[in-house]
Design a protein that fits this description.
The protein is an all-alpha fold. It is built from 4 helices and no strands.
Length: 102
């Protein structure tokens, strides 16, 4: 920050281009990891409050021994976590140009 200010950067430019970019990486990481927790917690939340959703479908598939339904929910959840992880990795490269996608 000191160098950017010494080069003549205004306070808003220094804040947005130097401070926020470095501060966003851990925030994006935590948000990316929370996607898996949210999918896992959906089963309990939807069961307790009797809400319709993916967690309730998964629980019904497990209690009824419906293997294709359970597999579908698991595959969908896994693909969702993979897609969010890919999006987070691409977001890293956009936030911090020092990170290269190779």
């Amino acid at each position: 920050m000191r160098t950017a200010r010494a080069k003549g950067g205004g306070p808003i430019r220094v804040l947005t281009h130097h401070v926020m970019r470095n501060a966003m990486l851990p925030i994006v990481t935590i948000l990316g990891m929370d996607v898996g927790l949210a999918l896992g917690g959906a089963i309990f939340t939807e069961t307790i409050f009797s809400l319709p959703g993916l967690g309730k479908v998964a629980l019904e598939g497990l209690t009824n021994s419906d293997l294709p339904q359970t597999q579908g929910v698991v595959v969908f959840a896994a693909l969702s976590v993979i897609a969010f992880s890919l999006a987070i990795d691409l977001l890293y490269a956009w936030i911090d140009p020092r990170i290269r996608l190779e």
